[in-house]
Every structure is written in structure tokens, then in C-alpha cells.
Amino acid sequence: MPIWSPRHSDSFRTANETTDMAMSMESGTATATSPTTVNDAEALLLTDTHTRVRRTDLERRIIRRVDWRVLPILGTLYALALIDRTNISIARIVGLDEDLGLSIGNRFSIVTGIYFIPYTLLQLPSNLLLRKVGPRKLLSFCVIAWGTTQLSMGFVSNWWLLGFLRTLLGALEAGFFPSMVYLISTWYTRHEVQTRLAIFYVVAIILDGFSAFFAYILSLLSGKLGIAGWAWIFIIEGAMTLAFGILGWFFLPGFPDCNNFLSPEETAVVLNRVQSDRGDSLPDILTWKKFVDAFDWRVWAYSLMFLCATTSTYGVGFFVTLILRGLGWSVSASLLLSAPPFVFAGMSTIIFSRLSDYYRQRALFIAIQCGITIVGWCLTGFAPAGGWRYGGLFLSNAGSSGTVIGILAYSSNNIVSHSKRAIVSGVIISAGGVGGLLASNVFTETSAPRYLPGIVVTIIFQVLLLVVLCATTVYFHRQNAGAIRESAQLEGHPGFLYTL
After folding, report:
1. Which phi and psi angles does 180 have, rounded to 5°?
2. Rg value, the chain, Cα
3. For the chain, what is the largest distance between any 2 Cα atoms, rounded to a whole number of angstroms?
4. What CA–CA distance (Å, rounded) separates 386 from 396?
5. Which of 259, 415, 428, 436 could bridge to 314 as Cys pair (CB 3.0-4.6 Å)?
6. What are the phi and psi torsion angles at 494 (to 5°)?
7. Sign of the alpha-carbon dihedral angle for 371, 374, 377, 379
8. 0.90 exceeded by the pTM?
9. CB atoms within 10 A of CB 326
10. What's the mean pLDDT in 41-55?
11. What is the pLDDT of residues 80-114, one digit of tens each?
């Protein structure tokens, strides 16, 4: 019995209509029509393949259109997700600590860490709902709901109520990131995915980097309407998220087989590219057997690597301003200086992602960026001069941000079928929630301002990431060699080879 199955339209195109559409595409006269259905896509896949060679320019034009429709809106919404989950550290240094007593015991670690419990547990269920409910409905609901939750944090009067709202925030944000990764991976071929993931992720981390100084400006409203400065941060940023969630209802893209911004002919080009690349352009039915079979050792290997990478990114995201305060800078200077490491991380991530796609190599570039992360944290933790320790934040943030995207592309490239893609992306990114929970507990209040225990744990995790990466790469290399030697199929698709 299926767990879920893709929805099919009741109408079918005739053979003549399909042929006419393919001919109109060749002549460049195709125009946007009503939303494309799975049946439209199936028919066009059969009639359209023999003309692919002549469509290079057309493909480029269509993919550029997909880029502009898919990536900016997803990047902006994910930026809001990052800002809303990490702005508590900025609110803390502008008065939240004193008003709610977060510096007492482990309260701050509890309030930051409790977010990741529902965030981790609910990612897979949310990802499985995405195909059933649809990206526009599910994702816009999540954004509107967590924006409302964020806004409500501006009116809390004690730390445990803040913790409750943080828990609710984690539940509502749970499915957003894995859903975006899953959605993006369905639109592009394997060696286009990392650059696209990097673009939307870089938009997010750069905006998140400048959010610290923006939050400080909001805190200067302290006293207006009798509201504290830290509360204004939650109220205004929550209202902004709420507004963008409403816009998302109108502009969020769907899956390629049921989108509403390409014509059926243009959709066929997108689907044919994916079909010839990895053989899973159309959704398949998710059964219990497929669900169980998806949990092989490779999924746990990807998840462990992602956990190791996100422990570092959350370490920077939650504690960069606190580390800078520990180096002796003022509140305003710490918030201003927290932005450049994120801009540098964005530039680095784009460069490494383009190189990784161009050379069709994942493991090599992940390993390089992992090494950069290790060097960065060593400088921040152990360098004697403040300038070197600040420079280490540039390297640790750049390396770990690029590693996160590299691991997502590495895993996505080596998966075939929509059902498995939904499961695997949910599980892997759930492991990222565990990484966030670990970061919030190893960078402890008692170890401030240098946070040496957290830095040491993060460095150890980077070494573990390299060991697991080496093991998976050796395995994939041997599988590819065996498939070539014996003319065998990998993942049930002729010509498919694992990306190393």
C-alpha cells in the first residue's frame, strides 16, 4: 500500500496535440499556459527526446527563467528562517539577558537548544507532506505561522515562555530547509545542483550576517510604546517574516511536473534534461518498502557528515557576536564586525560550488573546505592576538558554510527517485538539527568568552567528517569501477555513475 502517490490530472493530451506542441517549441512559439500536469509531462517526455540536441540555447533560456523564479524567493525566505532562529543571541546582548535572567545557570543554552528538538523530529514528516500538499501551500503556511510566533516573542515576560515559543518556532521551521533542498534538486541536473543550492544559501547567509547590525538598530527603539529594545527585534523581524510569508503564497514555485509558470513545452525540456541525467524526472509512488529501503548506511553517512558541518555553522551563527564581545569590542562594534565573515562565506561558497559543478567533483572540494574550517577554528580558539582570532571566524564560517552545501549536493547527486529524495533530504537535514543542539550545548556560558570546549569539539567533528567522506568516496569509486567493468546498472538507471 502506498504512503503517498503523486496527484494525476484526469485529462490527457491527444497524440496530435502533443506533436503540435513539440513543433511549436522547435519554432520558438511556445507560450505560458495553464499549469502543467504529470500526464502532460509524461506525453511530452515520449515525443520530445529526439530533439534535445538542437535545444541548447532554448534550454539555457528556460533554466535561467527557472533560476529567477525559484532561487530568489527561496533564498529570501530561508534568510528569514536563519535570522529568526539566531536573533536571540543579538537580543541577549541588548537587554534580554537582564530582563529575563537568561544568564542564570544554563537558561540560555536551554532556550537556544530546545528549538532543535521539534526541528529535528519533524523534518522528515514535513518533507513527506510536501508532495501531497504542495510547496506553495505548505511552505507559505509555515512562514506565516513562524513569523507570528517570532512576533509573539516580543511580548514574553519570563524565560520559560520564551522557551515555549522557541519550541514552537522549531516545529514550524522544521520542514522548510529540507523542503527547499528537495524542491531545488527536482529542477536541475546533478552537476547544476550545487551552484543552485549555493545561490539560495548564500543569499540567506549574507542577509543573516547583516541582520545583526539591523537588529542593533531596531534595539535603539527601546522605550518606544513602553517596549524594550530586544522586544522590538522580535516584533519587527517577525512582522517582516509574516509579510514575506503572504507574498510566498503567490510566488513560491511548485515541482517541475506541476508548475504554473512554464508552458507544457518548456516543462518538457526541464523534465527531459533530468530524465536523461538521472532517470527520475517524474514522481514515483512512495510505498512502505521504499521507505524502509531508503535507510541504508549511506544515508547515515551523509547525516553524520552534515551533523559535523552544521555544528560549526551554528557555532558561528549563535556565538559570533558573543565571541567578538569577548575580544573586547563594544556591542555596536561586535554587531557590525559580525557581518564581514558572512559576506566572505557567501563569496567562498559560490566559488567552491561553481568549481565543484564544473569539475563534477564533490568529495575533493568538501575536504578542502573542511580543512579551511579546521584552520579557522584553530585560529579563533588558540591564536594569541585578537586580529588573528577574528580572522579565524572568516575561515571557519566560509569553510563550514561551503561544506554544508557540498554535502547536500553530494547526497542529492547519488540518489534516484523522488520518494527517496524526499526521505533522504529530510533525514540528513534532521541531523543538522542535532548539530545545532550540540552547538548550543558545547558553546556553554561557563566557557565564555573564548568557548574553548565548543571549539575543540567542533574541530574533532571536522576530522570525523573527513574520515566518513573518505569512506563513502572509496565505496562509490569501487561501485563505479565495477559497473563500468561489468556493464551493470547502478540505482536501476542505465549509464548512471555515482558522483565522487
Report:
1. -65, -40
2. 23
3. 75
4. 15
5. 436
6. -60, 135
7. negative
8. no
9. 16
10. 46
11. 888 888 788 788 888 888 888 887 877 888 888 88
